[in-house]
Amino acid sequence: MKRRFFAAVILSLLVVIFLPSLSAQKGPAKLSPLEDLGKRLFFDKNLSSPAGQDCTACHGPKVGFTGQDEHINKVGGVYEGAVKGRFGNRKPPAAAYAGDSPKLQRDEDGNFVGGMFWDGRATGETLGDPLAEQALGPFMNPLEQNMPDKKSIILAVRKSDYASLFEKVWGSGSLDADKDVDGTYVRIGRAIAAYERSAEVNPFNSKFDDFWRAATANGLKVESINDSNAAGFKNLGLADAELRGLVLFNTKGMCSNCHVLTAANDKPPVFTDYTYDNLGIPENPENPFFGQEKKYNPDGKTWVDRGLGGTLDSVAKYQPFAAENMGKYKIPTLRNVDLRPSPGFVKAFMHNGYFKNLKDIVHFYNTRDKAGISWPPPEIAANVNKTETGNLGLARDEENAIVEFIKTLSDRR
Ligand code: HEC
Ligand code: HEC
């Protein structure tokens, strides 16, 4: 007993001595105080009830800030909240490379663009920033971090070892839990959003990024790559098979119609234009939400995920557009879709985690509507995009080349 106690004392001493020097060399040094505060909140397991769940429970860095529990990914792909047995209804999308999504709005063509979540319901209308607005959702969601109210979240932050950092960033008195509960809570959301937008979360340092910078420096436009100009992009950092995949991604595969290659804000592309589509993804029968208690899922087994249509249905000014948007989901970034802790590690894809690997996804895009091939029916049959997806005429090796290309989108750690 005693010996173990002393070992523990010595160990903690070592940690105290060495930790500051370690963390000084690592990521945090590059973060601004506001971003650092956001990071502390993102990784704080005391902001849940019961304690133990932070944002990384569903947005783990080692898989690109999405679900990092392989057992869950293999089945429903939907994560359990802080309270045992309570599950949400969708797969966590990446919390990285998401920060440029504008406020939810109708563009000039009548298409919806922007907002946060698969269904855009964190519109950005309240705070002017969808990402900050989103960050305030999980804490009080009974199916996620399950905190009772804003005040208890603020009190937990006041007790934390980064409370002084909070006041350093936002000013003294800014961590108020009585007179300005709403203001304090918003500051929490804005700090988290700052971290989610930081260079630590969005390093843009994948193999593709090196290639994109090299091509751009040579006066080449990656978004215009096709069969006839592809030779000019050789030897800029992508292997020939990956380059071929990129060409197909931008031509026959039509992927870039939605996962766009257009750069924004002088940064390489993030592979989404933040619009919405229904791909006709089949229902995932293993979604644990179907068996969720009545209080959270009154529809039980007959529950249908309505996507963007559900959001629009609940906003008076958008209600007329709800029907034509049922079953549509926000186009996700493709960055880090292949980032995993080990090669065989299983990840879940799409809003309901139906797909478990990238090859199946490309095969689905290629053959969903092809005669003689049968996929399970779509979760919602209305509004399925049949002009850009479903029957692409890709040969098997072309499908594989696209997968090879997508694998170049993983950040280096
Ligand atoms: C229990 C799992 C869980 C926890 C904990 C959790 N999330 Fe999420 N997160 C999800 C799911 C599921 C979605 C998608 C929900 C939807 O679309 O309806 C999501 C969506 C998001 C998105 C939207 C991304 C986009 O492109 O629309 C961001 C950003 C995000 N979460 C950040 C956070 C932050 C910050 C925290 C901590 C304060 C957090 N999440 C805690 C499961 C979780
Ligand atoms: C018409 C627009 C559109 C086209 C074209 C398109 N996608 Fe998508 N993609 C989406 C949408 C929308 C989703 C999410 C759908 C859902 O969850 O129901 C998605 C999801 C994905 C995902 C899963 C990402 C995740 O985090 O779960 C991958 C991988 C992907 N697409 C790759 C591709 C590839 C490769 C192509 C070309 C063969 C392609 N996409 C073409 C709109 C599109």
Q: H/E order of the elements?
A: HHHEEHHHHHHHEHEHH
Q: Which topology of the domain at 31-101 and 114-196 does CATH recognise?
A: Cytochrome Bc1 Complex, Chain D, domain 2
Bound molecules: heme C
Q: From the alpha-carbon coordinates, what is the Rg to the nearest angstrom?
A: 23 Å
Tell me about the biggest sheet? 2 strands, antiparallel
- Assign the CATH superfamily of the domain at 31-101 and 114-196: Cytochrome c-like domain
Principal-axis shape: globular
Q: Averaging pLDDT over every residue, what do you get?
A: 93
Count of separate DSSP helical elements:
13
Spatial arrangement of strands, main beta sheet? 1-2
What's the CATH first level of the domain at 31-101 and 114-196? Mainly Alpha
- Binned, the helix content reads 25-40%
End-to-end C-alpha gap:
40 Å
Briefly note the structural class of the backbone: mainly alpha
Number of strands: 4
CATH architectural grouping of the domain at 31-101 and 114-196: Orthogonal Bundle
Q: Unreliable segments (pLDDT under 50, ≥5 consecutive)? A: 5-11, 13-29
Relative strand content: under 5%
Brief sketch in words of this structure:
This protein is mainly alpha-helical and 413 residues long.
Model description:
With 413 residues, the chain is mostly helical. Among the domains are: 1-30; 31-101 and 114-196, Cytochrome Bc1 Complex, Chain D, domain 2 (Orthogonal Bundle), CATH 1.10.760.10. It has 13 helices and four strands. The chain has helices at residues 2-25, 33-42, 70-74, 130-135, 137-140, 150-159, 163-170, 181-196, 207-217, 240-250, 308-313, 358-367, 396-406, and strands spanning 105-106, 112-113, 276-277, 329-330. Strands 1-2 form a two-stranded antiparallel ribbon. It has a two-stranded antiparallel sheet with strand order 3-4. Helix 6 packs across helix 8 and helix 12 crosses helix 13. The chain is globular and about 65 Å long. One heme C (HEC) binds next to helix 4, helix 5 and helix 8. One heme C (HEC) binds at residues 42, 53, 55, 57-59, 79, 81, 88, 90, 92-93, 95, 98, 116-119, 131, 134-135, 138-139, 144-145, 192, 196, 330.
